[in-house]
Sequence to fold (102 residues):
Amino acid sequence: MSITETANRKGMKNVCVGSMDKTPPKEIMWESFPHRLFFGRESSVTWGVGGVAFINPLTNLNDQTHMCLYKITLEQFYDVLFQENGLTIDSDSPLFDLDFLQ
Fold:
């Protein structure tokens, strides 16, 4: 399964439909970062009961967090971002200026 595909995993409270563009990620890679992974909250809208993972933004060389990174399009990112945060898509109002990011 890819981050852009429909997800209905055991334990999920809400189904995620994935990205409207089902094209697989251009690249999938594993990386380690010197940041602490911690869990907070008691539940989430998508998963129901259970904590949510967070990464401390402060670098700490004693900590290592392993992450799977997906190289997807900006449009696919918007789709995933909106689903995971319970937002509705407004295509007339981009969240990020792609020209600014490049």
User: Anything to note?
Assistant: Residues 8 and 55 are 25 Å apart (CA to CA). The chain has a mean pLDDT of 78. The radius of gyration is 15 Å. The chain has two helices and six strands.
